[in-house]
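Entry 14. Ran structure prediction on the chain below.
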Amino acid sequence: NILRGLLAVKITYTKIPADICRQNRNFYKNHVRKAFVMWCAYEGYFDGVFTKSEIKKAKKGELPKDCNIHHKVPLSGTYDSEFVNSFENLMVIHKKTHERINRDIFQPQLNPIMTAPVGTQITIDVPAYGYVDMMGIRYERAKMLFKKERER
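Output, structure tokens:
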């Protein structure tokens, strides 16, 4: 299974026009991203994951440099602009996890429709995370610390 050990949900991915995807991305960057980070911080989702100084910055809308926000249903996969940038569709994950999800999970499933016409739909599996992938962030940070220790 491509999602080895991860809880997954099936979604319908709809190939949308590039201009709608661009609009969704711009709205996310200009309005949603900072608000989501702040909301996670004030709701306590970063407690036990980030340091106190990282949480303080998150309350201003800044994530640590090793973390990203990932859309569970991709920006390019739905006409529902309201849902795609809703907090329910977002998760804070480590950059390494984000790269693996895009490379190992999304790309192989979406390659078959890359040349298909707009409006083409397929069912894909997506990882089902909460708002913050606590274990993934802790794991990647521990790996980095271990690596630094070995280099000494």
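Strands lie at 8-14, 67-71, 90-94, 121-127. Will compare against last week's run tomorrow.
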